[in-house]
Design a protein that fits this description.
alpha/beta; Rossmann fold; Helicase, Ruva Protein, domain 3; 3 domains; 5-stranded parallel beta sheet; two-stranded antiparallel ribbon; 48% helix; globular; disordered N terminus
């Protein structure tokens, strides 16, 4: 596919093919995406395949001719399955693989009393905020070395006043009073000149201080810095209501009001933190960051609409609840493609990928209005988890529960090991509880493990328990009675 698309483009300059190949390497193939998801999520192959194709299509769209690119809309996905089977995790891991802005929204929040229709656009504004923070973080990482060097020089100016500008403090080269490094640079006392060789001595002293500071020997020394205070706008009357008037006015007013500065006596360690952040704020081009974030949101943004089944249906239950069909009609323009006003500018939602999910125990996907159904052409039904799945979930993922609990116990100098029959028994009890109670999927494993290791984690700091082996007998001793008690298990497990 990629070769076909690139072959239709004009002849590339020398080296362009290599650059395109490198760029392609940053994007995983659908098979590679599935493999990456497999390291965190057990099973659900159909869902992984669907989202992998959807993600790769984002990459393919970027390489289509401009006149056709805008016509290619994302294939939104609706994941159907009980809670705890991996719907949210699939969407979250997908966004991390793509390095895309991602926001999770509970659709049920739009059914609460007090909801107004335009609140649905808040998820797009949240997505833009996430994108801006993501791009800014990336820029800060790229500029970290420069900011550290500048911070180091400012700290040296604080520790050795006058060394930066070559000026002299008091007579005899001894500086009296306070020297301040702030937005305007280092202040100094001008005088008629300086003794011969003073600049050379200052340079040597500055380098000695640099060496001591890099070795961490000056961290507790106090210096005085000048910090900028953000003006408070608490208690001010802000505009309310009206279309397009629900931005963050607090931030706008803070930017408009004059900034105040304050001198603080802090340690070198604290001064380094303050000055480093100040340098990053200066170095990062926020206009460039915002533009990149807006582009990334429109082309790569992912919105995960959880509990979409809670808004399915034509009428709400008796009471003051918001109309479910009304919520669907509010969601439709955003999913279909519209322009949303944010504090950073206008955002088109035409090419944002929407992934919806719901258990659909009471309702069914066909209860959604036809227009909204048509905007989620890909439907994937996730399977319920059984005993064998629980065994794999406990052991196989990179962040498996057994691995997490082993790490927790090791922090106290203990060891925690699980036998095969012990893991099988945990999985059996979790499956039994899901069948006899509410089916909460893999989340049941968390409740079971918490109860199973409660005494171990409680006694561990006292040194009474150090080496723990969890076998089938260990599990049955602590869980069988609780799991069999109809009253207790509803509260404990």
């Amino acid at each position: 596919m990629s070769e076909h698309l690139s072959g239709s483009e004009p002849a590339s300059p020398p080296g362009a093919a290599e650059a395109a190949e490198k760029e392609s390497d940053r994007w995983l193939s659908p098979r590679e995406i599935v493999q990456e998801l497999d390291t965190y999520i057990v099973g659900q192959d159909a869902a992984k395949k669907a989202v992998a194709i959807a993600l790769r299509n984002r990459w393919r769209r970027q390489r289509v001719d401009d006149d056709l690119r805008d016509e290619i809309v994302p294939s939104n996905i609706i994941l159907i399955g009980p809670t705890g089977v991996g719907k949210t995790e699939i969407a979250r891991r997908l966004s991390r693989l793509a390095g895309a802005p991602f926001v999770k929204v509970e659709a049920s929040k739009f059914t609460e009393v007090g909801y107004v229709g335009r609140d649905v656009e808040s998820m797009i504004r949240d997505l833009v905020d996430m994108a801006v923070n993501m791009v800014r973080a990336e820029m800060e990482d790229d500029l970290a070395d420069t900011a550290e060097l500048r911070t180091e020089e400012k700290l040296l100016d604080l520790l050795l006043p006058g060394s930066a500008s070559g000026g002299e403090g008091a007579e005899g080269g001894e500086s009296e009073g306070v020297w301040v490094a702030g937005p305007g640079g280092v202040s100094s006392r001008p005088d008629g000149g300086e003794p011969e060789g003073l600049e050379e001595r200052r340079t040597r002293t500055r380098e000695k201080l640099r060496s001591l500071m890099r070795d961490g020997k000056l961290e507790d020394r106090e210096v005085e810095v000048e910090v900028t205070q953000t003006p408070a706008v608490d208690g001010m009357m802000l505009p309310m209501g009206g279309e397009g008037m629900d931005f963050n006015f607090t931030e706008m007013l803070q930017d408009m009001l004059p900034k105040k500065t304050k001198k603080r006596q802090v340690t070198v360690a604290e001064a380094r933190r303050l000055l480093y952040q100040e340098e990053l704020d200066r170095l990062v081009d926020m206009d460039e960051a915002v533009n990149e974030a807006l582009n990334r949101t429109e082309d790569m943004g992912i919105v995960f609409l959880d509990e979409i089944d809670k808004v399915a249906g034509t009428r709400a239950a008796a009471g003051p609840d918001v109309s479910r069909e009304g919520v669907q009609r509010d969601l439709l323009p955003v999913v279909e493609g519209s322009t949303v006003q944010t504090k950073y500018g206008l955002i088109r939602t035409d090419h944002i990928l929407f992934v919806a999910a719901g258990a659909f125990h009471v309702s069914k996907p066909s209860d959604l209005i036809p227009e909204l159904q048509g905007r989620f052409p890909i439907r994937v039904e996730l399977t319920s988890l059984g005993e064998d799945d629980f065994v794999r979930i406990l052991q196989e993922p990179r962040n498996a529960l057994l691995t997490q609990y082993r790490a927790l116990v090791e922090t106290e100098g203990g060891t925690l090991s699980f036998t095969e029959d012990g893991v099988a028994e945990i999985a059996r009890i979790a499956t039994q509880l899901n069948e006899s109670m509410e089916n909460i999927g893999a989340r049941r494993l968390q409740t079971v493990m918490t109860t199973l290791l409660e005494d171990v984690l409680f006694d561990l700091p006292d040194g009474e328990i150090k080496d723990v082996v969890v076998d089938a007998a260990f599990v049955r001793e602590r869980l069988t009675e609780v799991a069999a008690d109809e009253d207790l298990r509803r509260y404990i497990l």
